[in-house]
Structures are given as structure tokens and as C-alpha cells.
Design goal:
Blueprint: H1 4-12, H2 16-44, H3 48-59
């Protein structure tokens, strides 16, 4: 297994196209992890406060039309 310094050095040697491909791969993985985290937080109830806050804003007619 390579260490981080070796990986960074390898990344620096990539062509523009290879770098773009790697960047896209990282973006996809990051979004997948973010989606999983949000889903887990939602299932566990950690985001319930957002629903309550939105409902309170709606009741107070403070929501704006999009």
C-alpha cells in the first residue's frame, strides 16, 4: 500500500485528462458519502429539527415562493 506522499506524487504526474478523470471520481465518491450520511442522519432523527423549523416558518407565513 502506498502512503499519502507517494499517492500525491503520483497525482502530480497525471496528464490533464487523467487528473480530470480522478477529480470526477473523487467528486462522485464524496457525493455518495454525503448522501449516505444525510440518509443515516435522517433515519436516526438527527434532522428532525429542520422539519420542525420549516413547519414553524410555514405557520408564521415566513416562507418565500421559489
Amino acid at each position: 500500500m502506498q502512503n499519502v506522499e507517494e499517492i500525491l506524487s503520483s497525482i502530480e504526474s497525471l496528464s490533464r485528462e487523467e487528473f480530470a478523470r480522478l477529480r470526477e471520481w473523487f467528486y462522485e465518491r464524496d457525493w455518495e458519502r454525503w448522501d449516505k450520511e444525510i440518509e443515516e442522519d435522517s433515519k436516526s432523527g438527527k434532522l428532525g429539527f429542520l422539519v420542525k423549523e420549516a413547519l414553524a416558518e410555514k405557520t408564521d407565513e415566513k416562507l418565500k415562493e421559489l
